[in-house]
Amino acid sequence: MNIKKIFRSSSGLRKLPDYENRIVYNACKLQKIGDRLSGLIRGLSAGIVLMFLLPVVAKANFEGSGTASSPYLIKTPADMAQLATYVNATTTPFSAANTHYRLENDIDMSEYQNWIPIGTVLGNPFRGIFNGMGNVITGLRINNTSLANAGLFGYMVAGSAVSNLGIAEAVIVSTANVEMARVGGMVGYLAGSITNCFFTGSITVSGQIIYDAFVGGIGGDNNTATGIVQNCYTMGAVTVTAPTVHAGGVVGRNNGSRVSNCWTTVAVTSMAITTSNTGGIAGTNTAAAATVSNNAAINPSLSGLGSTQNKGRIVGNQVSGTISNNIAFEDMINLPNINEWLNVGINLKDGENINLSQIIADGTLGGFFTEEDGWTTLDGKLPGF
Question: Is the preceding peptide bond at 300 cis, omega within 30 degrees of 0?
Fold first, then answer.
């Protein structure tokens, strides 16, 4: 509305008394203020709309800046939980690729009695680089009733990495009703890399699983050519019940991926309705690029039940890919068939024999695990970090 028009006559702006002139002046001034406010409100409205279109950005609660030279520092159980919250909510920058984290000390996670993994599905995976710096996580407890991918990390994509980290005395139980279950001590689904890590504890998987369960001490499903498990060890027990089971001391399935320079003493038990694939290192090895090499299976026993039973001291079901240069405890118990290992050999699914005296006498397990490769060795002890 033009205020001056109200006082304009056919002969122009008529002369007004002083008080009327003051009214016109003040009215025009108010109009200008109103116009400015309208523009400001329109700008704010556009900003609010834009805010909802942009990704969520959070201020870090961690020291550091997330770069290789200044990683985010994880110091407490609460920091670990906050990392999981950020990644699972796809919060920038924590959910971004190549974001670096460093664990500063040992931490006890026992206050979190039902740990939610860091990254749960392809839509909110872990894309970063996590360096444990040789520290150990204790008290990890997972009682999973809903997630398909479970572990300390749930879902790791290509380019992600976890290194120099230990998990000790963990208890992982998964009873989720899902189409496929992928459960591991370190990670459920892996398309990244895990190196120089260890897991000790128990993993038990059951529930109303429709198809397959992939379960291993380090990773449940090591998948694609970028999936790497190297220089790791596992101790404890893996027990799986599902229609089809892929269970191993290190990984459940090695699907076009690589497992190398690992050892395990995990007792593996598979109970399947149809097919059980049970291996000391990997339950199943499949796809042309898949490689299982330079490993030592020192499992006390492997047990596989199902209408079809595939078992091997190194690989349970060798579908395709390469098995090379692996050794296995010659007295490993094969249940229910009691020590009938029919594919013994350094490049075969049961590996080459190594006996208890050799294991005790040589801390490198026949030169497989040396200080040059980052292991700490001592005769009479198993290799460590």
Answer: no
Q: What is the number of other CB atoms lying within 10 angstroms of the CB of residue 77?
A: 17
**379/385 Cα distance (integer angstroms):** 14
Cis check: omega of the bond before 125, within 30 degrees of 0: no
For tokens 């399947």, name the residue: 272
- Give the residue among 302, 274, 179, 158 at the shortest CA–CA distance from 222: 158
Considering the entire predicted model, what is its pTM? Answer: 0.85
Check: CB of residue 194 under 8 Å from CB of residue 227: no
Q: Are 232 and 213 in contact (CB under 8 A)?
A: no
Q: Which CATH number describes the domain made up of 68-354? A: 2.160.20.110
Strand locations in 261-345, DSSP E? 263-264, 267-279, 282-286, 291-293, 296-297, 301-305, 308-312, 315-318, 322-324, 327-329, 333-335
What single string gives the DSSP state of each residue in 200-259?
A: EEEEEE-S--SSEEEEESSEEEEESTT-EEES-EEEEEEEEEEEEEEEESSEEEEES-EE
CA dist 318 and 301 (Å) reads: 19
Q: Is 2 helix (H, G, I), strand (E, B) or coil?
A: coil
Cα distance between residue 130 and residue 103, in whole Å: 8
Each residue's pLDDT tens digit in the chain (385 positions)? 444 443 333 333 334 344 344 434 444 444 554 455 444 434 434 443 333 344 444 555 899 999 999 999 999 999 999 999 999 999 999 999 999 999 999 999 999 999 999 999 999 999 999 999 999 999 999 999 999 999 999 999 999 999 999 999 999 999 999 999 999 999 999 999 999 999 999 999 999 999 999 999 999 999 999 999 999 999 999 999 999 999 999 999 999 999 999 999 999 999 999 999 999 999 999 999 999 999 999 999 999 999 999 999 999 999 999 999 999 999 999 998 766 899 999 999 999 999 999 999 999 999 999 999 999 999 999 999 9
- DSSP letter assigned to residue 98: T
Structure tokens at 310: 């595939």
- Report the distance separating Cα 165 and Cα 137, nearest Å: 8
